Structure formats: C-alpha cells, structure tokens
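Consider the tokenized backbone below.
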C-alpha cells in the first residue's frame, strides 16, 4: 500500500456496496475523515483543553495547528496518501499529534505497541509495506532507535526512521522536530472517509499479529457510539492508562471518543497508581479503563490512598473477562460505576450500561453498542444454539471488519460466506442481549472428554484471599489427553494444591475442574497489550 493508492479488495476486504450504503443512510457512517473531524472540533472548542500529558497541555486549536505543522513535515519527507508507517510511540501528546497528522495526509498508521520488539515489528513492517517507522528515542529504559535500525536493515521498504526525541546520530533517522516544513497554512485533508484509516493488531495470543483494517467511517462510529453510551460530553476527562495504541484505549470510547465530544484526554506514562492517582486528582478525571490484571492493584491502593479520586464516575474494565468475584469490589473501592467491556480490535464492542442492575454489571460483559450489530451464537457445526446456551460468537455490523489485511487463507477460515466474523469467543446471550463470556474456543481444556473453561476456574481461584493473580492452561497428558495447570501469584503465604482444592470444594466447583497441578510464580507473563501470555506459560511447562 504505497504511493497514493488505498488497498484493494484483495488486500483489505470491505463491506458489500449495498450494505455500506445502508449504513450511510442510517447515519452510522458520517462521511468525515479524522483529519476533518479534528478541524471541526478545533473550530467548535478552540480554547478547551484537548490533550494533557506529563509535559504538555494542548487546546483543540493548538492541537490542530500542531497537526498541520507535523503533517507538512511528514509530507516534506515524502509521505503521501496510501503509504503505511509503523507508529510505535508511548502514551503522550506526541502520539496524538502524530496520529492525526498521518490521518490528515491519508497515511495509514500500523498501531504497534511499546512492548513490541524486532520479531513483531519486522513482521508488521513487511506485511503492511511500511515506508517509515516512528519511535521514541528511549522509553522505559529501552532504546527504540536501535530497534528501528534493526527493522530498517531487515525490511528494505522502510525508508525513514522518525524519532520523537533525539535521533542520536543513527543513520537515516530524523527527529520529529527537524522535519522539513514546505509551505504554510492548513493541510487539506487528503483521504476519503471510506479509506482505511489505520491498521490495528489482532489481540490473539497465538502466532504473530494479524492486521485489522479500520476505515474513517467505521472507526469514528465505533468511538462516538461508545462515548454516547458512556455519557461523555465536553466536561468529560478520560485517563489513558493502558497503551493508547491499543484499541480499548483508542476508541472504546477512549481517546477518540472523548475528543469526539469536545472532552479532554489525559495520557499517563504508567498504569501504576503512584502515577495515575495523582493525575486523577489533579485533572479531575471522570472516566478511565483498566484490564483485569491491573484491577486488584488499583483496588488495594485505592483503599489506602490519600489522593482524591472523587471525580471518577466510570471505571471500565475490559481486554479480558473480569472475574465475577472481583467485580463487586470495584465500586466500593474506587467510588465509581463499574462498566464491563467486551470488545475486539476486529470490531464488535459490548458495554454494560451505567444504570444496569448490579447482577448484570458484575456477571456480564455488556451488550452490543449498535442496533445494527448482528449476533449469532453457534455450536461446532455452525448451527445456532438455543437461547442461553454457550456457543461461539459470530458477528457482523457497521464497524466489524470483513477481512484481515493481506490474509486470504485466514479470512477463508475466519468469516462465513455471508460475512459473519468468527470471533473464537465462547459466550452465552441473555434475554436482555447482554453477553456472558465463557472463554475462548481455543482456551478450553479437554481433560478426558470433560471440557474445562479456563476463564471460569480462574475466576474461582481469584476468590481466594491469598491469590492475587491466576492463569489456567492445558498441557499434554498421556492419561487424560490434557491436564490442567494453575499458575498462581500469591499475596503473602503460598497457596498450594491442597489449599486450592479445599477452596474450590467450598465453592462447589466440580472435581474435574480442579487443577491437576499448581505452580507458584512471582508474576504472570503479559503480552504487549497487557493480557496474560498463556503461550509463555505453556512453553514454561514444556521446557521444565
């Protein structure tokens, strides 16, 4: 995808023409690019604060001007509509300015995460045909300039390395602030709203990431629909705790959702309460988003903090299922409404409603945000299951992809003939439309014919007061085919297999679901998006 050309249908499958037109007629797709939207927002909210990070505070007018200046510099470097770049910046104003500058030019960012290294970035750069790699100089004691040099050497198409900071004399690297600035005045928006605006990464934990094409139309609708359900307005202040390049933090409603309504985005360089709690107090944050591993840490710190968290109105928790036993602890500790989030970078987003009864807030993962979201729950043969029974979730709609980027073989497996995306998630749908996430199709353990949902057992384990984190995986076994192994992070005293069995019996958990093996670890490995890395745990068992 280089040189003034958007990807064709073979690269990035899209909605059938009649379906796309129906979404436009219904008003789901507004026909505005992100660059044009920012121009509108700057006119409507010129002096309101748009973005805050550790070093800067920018109004909407200042953000718009900074975006124009950087877009001019990137255009002077040779970037143009249809090019792709790997964008790998941490949370901060530089990410926001750079992202919108790329949008204004019609250049497509690949949302790499700060935790990605050479294996992932070279794959992403080669698959996307990236012509540039945009990085910080040093972040979290890691030198990204060395990483960029490695990627550039391995992927010849990467012609430019742009550094937010000091290039440090690296060959071919240029600082964001040193880009050429040809011409003056605003950059006119280059793309069409139906163009691919960005390439997100698949959130699965198997293999290298796949690329997810999202258009201006569908992604803007995603963010705005979520913002409306969350009750966001110009007085809302969103704190980005997880990486902003992550779909959850970007548009659920995230950065794009709060900006779409004229609110303020505060970007934290760390998810740790020692950094985030002072920001909540100082900026009067109203909404933030966490993942399940981070939630107990925040709960514990909130119980003893001296910081004023009273401005918090909503705490979203998503990216993996929140254990039923942990959910009721969130609101008393943080003083804000819990909103469960079940979404995917591929599209479909589910939110619990702010006025849902506790039973739904604590035990379900929300319901689809759009009336045009289509849901099917099917068995292994693809037949719809009876209401309330568990099955694989299939979906299509105005912001759910119709195919991964440059992945025809995978697309043939992941989509039905009539365009439904096979999510791989096992769910139950309630009469209210809310979804209860049981687990993943590939995250079930088949122990002698008995199917064990790892997510369910993990929730039971987390109800033990001595267990801070838990992950259950399957490993090959001669007798049962698979046996279950629980990796536990304990709070103080070790919680061994006997104590685990006693705890699960007290909860009435079937014997076959009890872990066959318990491993105590200091911490659970995480993927770059903060999910528990079960592949790493399985590899640990193999190498033991």
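A designed sequence for it:
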């Amino acid at each position: 995808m280089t040189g003034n050309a958007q990807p064709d249908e073979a690269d990035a499958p899209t909605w059938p023409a009649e379906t796309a037109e129906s979404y436009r007629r219904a008003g789901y797709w507004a026909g505005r690019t992100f660059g044009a939207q920012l121009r509108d927002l700057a006119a409507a909210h010129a002096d309101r604060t748009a973005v805050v990070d550790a070093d800067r505070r920018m109004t909407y007018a200042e953000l718009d001007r900074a975006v124009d200046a950087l877009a001019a510099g990137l255009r002077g470097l040779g970037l143009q509509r249809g090019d792709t770049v790997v964008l790998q910046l941490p949370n901060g104003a530089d990410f926001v300015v750079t992202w919108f500058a790329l949008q204004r030019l019609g250049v497509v960012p690949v949302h790499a995460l700060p935790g990605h290294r050479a294996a992932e970035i070279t794959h992403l750069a080669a698959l996307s045909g990236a012509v540039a790699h945009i990085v910080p100089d040093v972040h979290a004691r890691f030198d990204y300039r060395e990483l960029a040099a490695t990627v550039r050497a391995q992927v010849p198409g990467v012609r430019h390395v742009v550094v937010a900071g000091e290039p440090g004399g690296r060959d071919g690297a240029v600082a964001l602030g040193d880009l050429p600035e040809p011409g003056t005045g605003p950059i006119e928006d280059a793309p069409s709203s139906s163009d691919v605006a960005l390439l997100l990464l698949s959130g699965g934990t198997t293999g290298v990431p796949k690329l997810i094409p999202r258009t201006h139309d569908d992604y803007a609708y995603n963010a705005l629909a979520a913002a409306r359900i969350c009750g966001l307005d110009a007085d809302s202040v969103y704190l980005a705790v997880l990486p902003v390049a992550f779909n959850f933090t970007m548009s659920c409603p995230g950065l794009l959702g709060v900006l779409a309504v004229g609110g303020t985005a505060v970007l934290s360089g760390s998810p740790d309460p020692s950094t985030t709690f002072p920001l909540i107090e100082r900026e009067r944050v109203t909404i933030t988003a966490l993942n399940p591993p981070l939630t107990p840490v925040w709960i514990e710190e909130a119980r003893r903090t001296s910081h004023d968290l009273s401005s918090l109105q909503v705490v979203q928790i998503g990216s993996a299922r929140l254990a039923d036993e942990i959910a009721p602890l969130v609101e008393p500790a943080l003083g804000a409404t819990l909103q469960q989030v079940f979404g995917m970078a591929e599209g479909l987003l589910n939110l619990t409603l702010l006025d849902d009864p506790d039973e739904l807030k604590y035990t379900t993962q929300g319901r689809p945000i759009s009336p045009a979201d289509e849901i099917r729950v099917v068995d292994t043969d693809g037949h719809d299951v009876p209401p309330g029974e568990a099955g694989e979730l299939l979906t299509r709609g105005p912001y759910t992809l119709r195919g991964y980027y440059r992945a025809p073989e995978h697309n043939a497996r992941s989509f039905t003939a009539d365009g439904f995306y096979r999510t791989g998630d096992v769910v139950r749908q309630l009469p209210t439309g809310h979804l209860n996430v049981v687990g993943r199709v590939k995250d079930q353990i088949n122990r002698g014919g008995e199917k064990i949902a790892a997510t369910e057992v993990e929730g039971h384990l987390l109800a033990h007061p001595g267990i801070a984190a838990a992950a259950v995986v399957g490993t090959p076994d001669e007798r049962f085919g698979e046996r279950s192994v629980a990796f536990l992070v304990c709070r103080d005293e070790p919680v061994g297999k006997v104590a685990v069995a006693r705890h699960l019996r007290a909860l009435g958990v079937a014997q076959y679901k009890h872990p066959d093996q318990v491993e105590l670890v200091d911490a659970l490995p995480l993927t770059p998006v903060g999910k528990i890395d079960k592949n790493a745990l399985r590899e640990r068992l193999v190498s033991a």
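The chain has a mean pLDDT of 93.
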